[in-house]
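Entry 14. Structure prediction run on the chain below.
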Amino acid sequence: MEETDREAVATAVQRVAGMLQRPDQLDKVEQYRRREARKKASVEARLKAAIQSQLDGVRTGLSQLHNALNDVKDIQQSLIDVNKDWRQSINTIENLKDVKDAVVQHSQLAAAVENLKNIFSVPEIVRETQDLIERGELLQAHRKLMDLECSRDNLMYEQYRMDSKNTHDMNLIHTYFGDMQKLSEELAKQLWMVVQRSLVTVRRDPTLLVSVVRIIEREEKIDRRMLDRKKQTGFIPPGRPKKWKEKMFNILERTVSTRIEGTQADTRESDKMWLVRHLEIIRKYVLDDLLVAKTLLDQCFPPHYDIFKRLLSMYHQALSTRMQELAAEDLEANEIVSLLTWVLNTYKSTEMMGNSELSPEVDVNSLNLLISQDVVDQLLSKYMSTLTSNIIGWLRKALETDKKDWVKETEPEADQDGYYQTTLPAIVFQMFEQNLQVAAQISEDLKTKVLLLCLQQMNSFLTRYKDEAQLYKEEHLKNRQYPQCYVQYMIAVINNCQTFKESIISLKRKYLKVELEDTLSSSHASMDAILDIIAKEGCSSLLDEVFMDLETHLNELMTKKWLMGSNAVGTICVTVEDYFNDFAKIKKPYKKTMTVEAHRRVVVEYIRAIMLKRISFKNAEERKEGAEKMIKEAEQFRFLFKKLAAGSGEDTEGLCDIIEAIAEVIKLTDPSLLYLEVSTLVSKYPDIRDDHIAALLTVRGDASRDMKQTIIETLDQGPSQPNPNYVPIFKEITVPTLTVPKLLK
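Output returned:
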C-alpha cells in the first residue's frame, strides 16, 4: 500500500507541475481543483458499481451451488430406491419366462396363420406364375412371385427368431418353396432377353421395356429392405440381394460388346476392303443406337439410372477394346490408314459422335482417344515403313512399265498441246497424290511426312530414270534401226522432265505449308538439276542421231566435190529441218535449248570441215568461188535456224557470222592485207589458236610457210580484247596434227 501511495503522490505531483508551468495559471488553481474533484468522484462511483456487481455474482453462484447439492442428494436417494425395487423384482421376471415363450410362439403361429392360405396354394401359384411368364405377362408374374417370396421370407424369419440354429426347419421351408427359386431364374431370363434387345424393343413395344425396369426397381427396393433388416436382426432370405440392376447393366455391357464385335462380316482373304466395311458398319450401328437411346430409351428408365450416359460409356469402352484388337493385328498400309482415320477423325466427326442430334449430351472434347498415343505412334511408324517400301516398289514397277513402252513400234501419245509424253509422270504423281490425300485425312503432320518421303524417293527415282535413259541411248547405238520410234520416245523422256518439274512444284504448293518450304529447297534443287541433266543428255542424244545421219554430207564439205557444186549443205538443211519437225514435239524450254545446240553444232562441224584442210585453193578465182559458196551456205544456215527458232527469241545471227568472217579471209585477193584480215578475225573470236590460223592459211593455198609463221608470231604479240558476250567455239575444234606441220615460234 505504501508503494502504491508513493506512486499516486508522484503521479499527482507530475500532473500539478504540468498544470502550473506559467504564473498566469495560478489564477486557475481553484478551477483545476474543482475539475479534479469531479474526476475523483466519477472514478469512485465506477469503482463502487464494479464491486457491487462482483458481489451480486458471487451471491448468485453460492445460491446455485446450494441448490445443486440438494438435487444431487435427491437423485442419490432415488437411485437407492430403484436399486431396491429392481432386486425385489428379479424373481418376478424369472417367473414370466413362460409368458415370453408363449408370446414368441403366438407370433410365429400368427405368421403361419396369416400365410396359411399362401402356404397351401404354393403349387397353384407356382403354376400360375409359370403360365404368366410364358405368356409374357411379366408384371403379373412378378407380383405373384413377390407374394411367394414374402410368405417364405416371413416364415423363415419367424423360425430364425424362434431358433436361429434350427437348420432343419429352415431347410424344410426352403425346400417347400424350392420351385419359387426356379421361377425367379426363369423370370430373370425373360428380363435379360428384353434387356439384350432393349434398343429394338423400345421401338416396337416400349411398354414391355418399362415393365422390365419396374420389376428391377421392385427388386432393388426389396434388396434394400432385406439388407436393412439384416443389420438389425442378422437374418437375410436365401438369394438376397439379387442385384438385378447391376446384372442389367452387365447384360447391357456384354450386349454392346457383342454388337461391336459382330459387325465384322468379311476377312482380308474374302474382301480387301474388309476393314473399311467393318468400320463403316460400326459407325452406322453406334450412331443409330445412341440416337435411339437418347430419344426413346431414356424415357423408359428412371432419371437416376442416367441410362444414356451409361450406354455412351459402354459403347466408348467397347469401341476402344475393338480398336485396340484391330491395331494389334498385322495390318497393311491402307488398313492402318483406314483405322487411324476412323479413330482420330471419323469417331468425333459429325458423322458419328459429333452428330448434332446427340448434343449436348455428347461432348466430343471430353471423349478420350480410343487407342493410346503410343499405339497411334506405333501404327504411324509401321505405316511410314510400309509406305516407303511400297513407294519404292511402285516407282520401280512404273519405270519398268515405261521402259517397255520405249521399244514399241508405235509413237507415244501426245498431250493436248501435241507434245509427246509417256504415262510415267501421271502414274507417279497420281500415286503421290493418293497417298497424300490419305495422309491428310489422318493429320497435317503425317501429310508433311508423307510429302517429304515422296520427294525423297523421287530424288532416288530420278537418278535411276537418268541411268535408264542413258542405257536406252546406248542400246540404240548398237543398232540404230531399233527401237523403231527411238527419237519419239527420247522426246517423250525429255518432255517428262518438264512435266516432273511442274508436278513437283504443284505438289509442294498443294500439300506443303509455306513455312516448311525452306526445308525442301535443297532437295528441290537437286531434283531440278537431275531433270536438267536427263533433258540435256536426251537432247544431246537426239542431236547425235541427227549428226550421224549428216556425217556423209558433212564429209563432203570443203572438198573438190563441194567446190564443183555439191548440194551437201542443202541436204544438211533439209535433214535438220525434217528432224526438227519431230523435235517440235519437245516442250519449252528444252526445244529452245535443242535449237541453239543444233545451230552451234552445225556451225562447229562446218568450221571443223574447213580446219581439216580437205581442199587447198589453187588461185584467186577458186578462193572467190569457195568463199562465196561459204557465204551463201552460211545464209542458208541462218535462214534455217531462224525458221526453227521462230518465236523462241534466239539470236541466230552470231554463229553464222563466224563462217562469213572465215570466208572473207579466204576471199581476200591482196596477200599484203592478209595479216589485217586475220587479225580482225582473231579480235572477234579470241579462242582461235595458232593451228587454226595455220589451217585457214593452208586452205587459202597462197600463203608460204614463212608468211604463216610471221602472221602467227605477230598475232601472238598483239593485244587481245575479247567480246564479253562471245561464247568460245574454236576450242571445240581440233586440227589434225598429222597433216599440219608444227610451227615453231
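The two ends are 146 Å apart (CA to CA).
Filed with the rest of this week's runs.
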